[in-house]
């Protein structure tokens, strides 16, 4: 039995609250159980210096956790003067995941910056961030389309979502919360598109190595989970 009482293939309750932020061109409060992340998408009429006059845009991401997102207060990274390695890794992952489904040429010489701020953490913050960030990005593009700046269906090529899977007490399970993640023998994150494309897989054996058969089982769990998340994304945007 999982600590959460869920079945091995059962995800936590997932929800998307669009237009959460008054000022951002696109925003979404995403909840994976008790993990809550505010994702905002901001349009900037510029691109990084290395992309100037290249005829294409850019999508980038920043990630952070509020001091009381966890059980004990964490010091703000700004107070230490630099971001931690985990933060940099996660925000790069979010950016890569979104760019995988964006036609940067159709975006034009503009940048969309996605900010993922973890309000409350209970495992799976990076997967929730990616999944919610797609909704915020979609709404930013719709904001632009309403002003005749782009055509959303030309810029956004597909859905992208992410989910964690792991092996807990010899049982493959999906969407681990913190208690499960901290006790899992194997932990993996899967980023996939609605059409079945694989963007990234991160997998680690915490103790004994996992087998190819176990990996295939995790992959199957993840695929089903991604399909469920994409369905929820579509319902949220009214597609």
UniProtKB/TrEMBL annotation:
Task of the protein: Phosphorolytic 3'-5' exoribonuclease that plays an important role in tRNA 3'-end maturation. Removes nucleotide residues following the 3'-CCA terminus of tRNAs; can also add nucleotides to the ends of RNA molecules by using nucleoside diphosphates as substrates, but this may not be physiologically important. Probably plays a role in initiation of 16S rRNA degradation (leading to ribosome degradation) during starvation.
Keywords from the UniProt entry: Nucleotidyltransferase, RNA-binding, rRNA processing, Transferase, tRNA processing, tRNA-binding
Subunit structure: Homohexameric ring arranged as a trimer of dimers.
Binding site for phosphate: 86, 124-126
InterPro entries the UniProt entry points to: ExoRNase_PH_dom1 (IPR001247), ExoRNase_PH_dom2 (IPR015847), ExoRNase_PH_dom2_sf (IPR036345), PNPase/RNase_PH_dom_sf (IPR027408), Ribosomal_Su5_D2-typ_SF (IPR020568), RNase_PH (IPR050080), RNase_PH_bac-type (IPR002381), RNase_PH_CS (IPR018336)
An MF annotation (GO) of this entry: tRNA nucleotidyltransferase activity
SUPFAM superfamilies: Ribonuclease PH domain 2-like, Ribosomal protein S5 domain 2-like
Signal peptide (residue range): none
Source species taxonomy: Bacteria, Pseudomonadati, Pseudomonadota, Alphaproteobacteria, Hyphomicrobiales
Pfam family, one: RNase_PH
Annotated Exoribonuclease phosphorolytic domain residues: 10-140, 160-224
Domain of life: Bacteria
PROSITE patterns: RIBONUCLEASE_PH (PS01277)
Enzyme Commission number, as recorded: 2.7.7.56
Reaction(s) catalysed by this chain's protein: tRNA(n+1) + phosphate = tRNA(n) + a ribonucleoside 5'-diphosphate
Segments crossing the lipid bilayer: none
Enzyme class: transferase
Name by which UniProt lists this protein: Ribonuclease PH
PANTHER family linked to this entry: EXOSOME COMPLEX COMPONENT (PTHR11953), EXOSOME COMPLEX COMPONENT RRP41 (PTHR11953:SF0)
């Amino acid at each position: 039995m999982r600590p959460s009482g869920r079945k091995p293939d059962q995800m936590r309750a997932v929800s998307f609250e669009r237009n959460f932020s008054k000022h951002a061109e696109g925003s979404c409060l995403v909840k994976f159980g008790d993990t809550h992340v505010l994702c905002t998408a901001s349009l900037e009429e510029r691109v990084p210096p290395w992309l100037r006059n290249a005829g294409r845009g850019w999508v980038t991401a920043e990630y952070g956790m509020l001091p009381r997102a966890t059980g004990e207060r964490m010091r703000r990274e700004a107070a230490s003067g630099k971001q931690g390695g985990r933060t940099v890794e996660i925000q790069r992952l979010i950016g890569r995941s979104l760019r995988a489904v964006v036609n940067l040429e159709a975006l034009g010489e503009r940048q969309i910056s996605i900010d993922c701020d973890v309000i409350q953490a209970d495992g799976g913050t990076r997967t929730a961030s990616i999944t919610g960030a797609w909704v915020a990005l979609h709404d930013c593009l719709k904001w632009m389309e309403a002003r005749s700046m782009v055509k959303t269906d030309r810029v956004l090529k597909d859905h992208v979502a992410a989910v964690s899977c792991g092996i807990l007490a010899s049982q493959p399970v999906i969407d681990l919360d913190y208690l499960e993640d901290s006790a899992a023998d194997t932990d993996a994150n899967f980023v996939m598109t609605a059409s079945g494309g694989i963007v990234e897989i991160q997998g680690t054996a915490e103790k004994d190595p996992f087998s190819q058969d176990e990996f295939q089982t995790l992959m199957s769990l993840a695929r089903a989970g991604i399909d469920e998340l994409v369905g929820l994304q579509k319902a949220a945007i009214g597609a």
